[in-house]
Amino acid sequence: MPNFIQVMAFDYGESRIGVATGNTELKIPHPLETVTGRNKFDKLDKIAKLIEMWRPQLLVVGKPGNIEGKTELFASINKFANRLSHRFNLPVNFVNEDYTSSLASGQLNEQNVFGRRQSEKLDQLAACAILETYFNNHVAK
To answer: Long-range CB contacts (< 8 A, 24+ apart) of 65-69?
Structure first.
């Protein structure tokens, strides 16, 4: 029986949700998908397929470290996390997502990925950065 936990991370946005996965043994995040849909139910259905495929035991959601001027975003992220927890009966942890999108954009710029090609991958890489933060701060070395 493996002694590691499969973790799935989310970079939540109203129009797009970046998804990444990894496990606590290797601690290497892998980008999976940028989830889009007509509404929150479409997005949750797509996330359900990813959860079924990857079978995480823990979900991690990025949340800004500073609430100032972001109360609507905070409320929206909390609702998203609650939906994940209730629908999939999995624990949800929050980690600080500050600068994860900037980091992801910088990584893509270094690879000469710009414009539409960048927007397709940006949220997935931000989810990877969120997951890496989780691994660095919550998983024993």
So the answer is: 65/96, 65/97, 65/98, 66/98
Question: What is the pTM (predicted TM-score) of this model?
Answer: 0.90
What residue type is 117 in one-letter code? R
Using N-to-C axis directions, what is the helix angle for 40-54 and 71-88, rounded to 10°? 50
For residue range 78-116, list pLDDT tens digits in order. 999 999 999 999 999 999 888 777 777 777 777 777 788
**Selecting from 3.30.420.140, 3.40.50.300, 3.30.420.100, 2.40.50.180, what CATH number does the domain 6-138 have?**
3.30.420.140
Counting other chains too, the contacts that 100-104 makes at CB distance below 8 Å and 24 or more residues apart are: 100/11, 100/62, 100/126, 100/129, 100/130, 100/133, 101/11, 101/126, 103/129, 104/128, 104/129
